């Protein structure tokens, strides 16, 4: 498990800077105006900071960028990291500054002389988020992110303000670890075990095994995992931090590996399908964050954990299954498996919890990557209110999300000759027909969003807050949505 960095807050002591080893960070605004900490470093380095602040390089830098002064005279530190920042950075700039510091930090201890800088706690969150490495499977023992200390005018208050951000970062790390984990390690059994451990944080965790799922009538979900030696499971995680109100439901696709089944995928790139449980990973990360920050809301997270494998016992193209809702489904393509899993978990979530609203997350379609690339997740919804609130939360957290259309016209593409619906609608509007399919398992008055995260859950290039690989996209936006809409 990847731990977030050890980040501490201490009172300002300018006289301690000269002797500090490792790296020292200071903040300088675009006008080159130095705060007390930067002034102190400027004096100690015989005006190296002022020279940098006067330079073209500094003028061209963006707010939140970090410039490095190596081996400065007058300091024990190996480098000064100069953060370009307005006097009052906004949330995005403060977090970006933190992320840039984490990148510049490497393995070195870091002292951040923030003084009275507003939103220092957001700098700390950005630092925590970017200090991630998935090196559990490197034979050389993985290192934890190096420690950092913030020198601030009100350490206790800044630390308290940072606590929620760290709780969210821990949720993000949980999501990333699950999503990065290879499928021989993160089997359905191991996934359920890791979720079970969340009960130590006060979450109520239940694991529904195959016999129970059969009894509930989840033939749609079960048909996906039937070719695998790993048993299919549904895990229910409840966080009851609110009052008597109905919970908000989060539902995740947890395909621990997607070979495509009998409709086998091509070999090239198939290894990426270890991330096909990314939706379930986000649900797990949000639930962990809610528990860590003791959110004052009732939220239930449900994930369908299956492995999509070909075998003599696997579902065939052309098979017909009856979902828990009673809807019959013709399985045209066994590689359109995520929607088969979600159909039953969505129905179960509504049937059992009568939630006040529901959001599902899934690495559902390659088509959403064609449409939106890796910058935005697709947002499909029957509710302007809920999707509008989600889009706003995602924007606030800097997580790309874009609303996509739905409509009855698309339903004809998933009409089946022999069953109620079929599980693929062909190439046109592939992400929308997938959403229409899910919509068939959402009750009439249920405010619902489907987030297609195939393009954003795991990426090949680093992002502002994560190295290449799993991003944890959505954990921050969903936390924000819950805190803004359902807490207090
Ligand atoms: N897990 C895939 C979608 C996916 C593709 C996720 C690329 C992440 C990256 C999904 O189960 C799938 O195979 N979808 C098919 C649907 C098709 C058969 C209708 C697809 O997108 O090709
Ligand atoms: Mn598939
Ligand atoms: Zn899949």
Could you outline the blueprint of secondary structure elements for this entry?
Layout: E1 7-11, E2 23-28, H1 36-44, H2 48-54, H3 56-60, E3 66-70, E4 79-84, H4 91-105, E5 110-115, H5 120-130, E6 148-152, H6 155-180, H7 188-196, E7 204-208, H8 210-216, H9 219-225, E8 233-240, E9 248-258, H10 278-292, E10 298-308, E11 320-322, E12 328-330, H11 338-353, E13 357-362, H12 367-372, E14 377-381, H13 384-396, E15 401-403, E16 421-422, H14 430-439, E17 448-452, E18 458-459, E19 469-470, H15 475-486
Parallel strand pairs: 1-6, 2-4, 2-5, 5-6, 9-10, 9-13, 12-16, 13-17, 14-15
Antiparallel strand pairs: 3-4, 7-8, 8-10, 11-12, 14-17, 18-19
Helix pairs in contact: 4-5, 5-6, 6-10, 9-11, 10-15, 11-14, 13-15
Bound molecules: ligand BES, manganese (II) ion and zinc ion (ZN).
Describe the 3D structure.
The chain has 488 residues and is an alpha/beta fold. Helix content is 34%, strand content 20%. The protein contains 15 helices and 19 strands. The chain has helices at residues 36-44, 48-54, 56-60, 91-105, 120-130, 155-180, 188-196, 210-216, 219-225, 278-292, 338-353, 367-372, 384-396, 430-439, 475-486, and strands at residues 7-11, 23-28, 66-70, 79-84, 110-115, 148-152, 204-208, 233-240, 248-258, 298-308, 320-322, 328-330, 357-362, 377-381, 401-403, 421-422, 448-452, 458-459, 469-470. The strands form four sheets. An eight-stranded mixed β-sheet has the order 7-8-10-9-13-17-14-15, with helices on both faces. The protein has a six-stranded mixed β-sheet with strand order 1-6-5-2-4-3, with helices on both faces. Strands 11-12-16 form a three-stranded mixed β-sheet, with helices on one face. A hairpin with a 5-residue loop joins β11 and β12 (328-330). The longest helix has 26 residues, at 155-180. 54% of the residues are buried. The structure holds ligand BES, manganese (II) ion and zinc ion. The site of zinc ion (ZN) has 5 residues, from β9.
């Amino acid at each position: 498990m990847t731990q977030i960095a050890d980040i501490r807050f201490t009172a300002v002591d300018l006289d301690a800077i000269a002797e500090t080893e490792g790296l020292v960070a200071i903040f300088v605004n675009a006008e080159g105006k130095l705060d007390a900490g930067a002034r102190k470093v400027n004096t100690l380095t015989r005006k190296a900071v002022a020279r940098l602040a006067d330079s073209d390089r500094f003028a061209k830098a963006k707010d939140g960028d970090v410039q490095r002064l190596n081996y400065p005279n007058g300091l024990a530190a190996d480098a000064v990291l100069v953060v370009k920042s307005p006097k009052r950075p906004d949330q995005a700039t403060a977090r970006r500054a933190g992320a840039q510091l984490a990148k510049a930090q490497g393995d070195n201890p870091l002292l951040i002389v923030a003084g009275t800088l507003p939103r220092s706690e957001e700098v700390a969150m950005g630092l925590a988020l970017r200090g991630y490495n998935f090196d559990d499977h490197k034979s050389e023992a993985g290192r934890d992110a190096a420690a950092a200390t913030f020198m601030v005018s009100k350490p206790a208050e800044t630390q308290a303000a940072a606590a929620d951000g760290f709780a969210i970062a821990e949720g993000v790390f949980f999501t990333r670890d699950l999503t990065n984990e290879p499928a021989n390690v993160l089997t359905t059994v191991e996934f359920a075990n890791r979720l079970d451990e969340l009960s130590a944080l006060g979450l109520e965790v239940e694991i529904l095994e195959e016999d129970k799922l059969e009894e509930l009538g989840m033939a749609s979900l079960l048909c996906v995992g039937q070719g695998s030696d790993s048993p299919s499971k549904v895990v229910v995680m409840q966080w009851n931090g609110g009052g008597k109100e109905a919970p908000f439901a989060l539902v995740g696709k947890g395909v621990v590996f997607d070979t495509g089944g009998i409709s086998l995928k091509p070999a090239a790139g198939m290894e990426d399908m270890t991330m096909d449980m990314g939706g379930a990973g986000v649900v797990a990360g949000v639930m962990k964050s809610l528990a860590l920050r003791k959110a004052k809301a009732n939220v239930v997270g449900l994930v369908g954990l299956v492995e999509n494998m070909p075998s003599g016992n696997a579902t065939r193209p052309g098979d017909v299954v009856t979902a828990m809702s009673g809807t019959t489904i013709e399985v045209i393509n066994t590689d359109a498996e995520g929607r088969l899993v979600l159909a039953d978990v969505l129905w179960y979530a509504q049937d059992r919890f009568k939630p006040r609203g529901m959001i599902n997350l899934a690495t559902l379609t390659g088509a959403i990557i064609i449409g939106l690339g890796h910058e935005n997740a697709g947002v499909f919804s029957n509710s302007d209110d809920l999707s509008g609130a989600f889009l706003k939360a995602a924007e606030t957290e800097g997580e790309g999300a874009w609303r996509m259309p739905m409509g009855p016209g698309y339903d004809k593409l998933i009409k089946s000759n022999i069953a109620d619906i079929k599980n693929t609608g062909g190439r046109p509007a592939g992400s929308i027909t997938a959403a229409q399919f899910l919509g068939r398992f959402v009750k009439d008055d249920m405010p619902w969003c489907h987030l297609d995260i195939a393009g954003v859950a795991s990426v090949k290039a680093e992002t502002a807050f994560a190295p290449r690989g799993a991003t944890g996209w959505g954990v921050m936006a969903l936390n924000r949505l819950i805190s803004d809409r359902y807490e207090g």
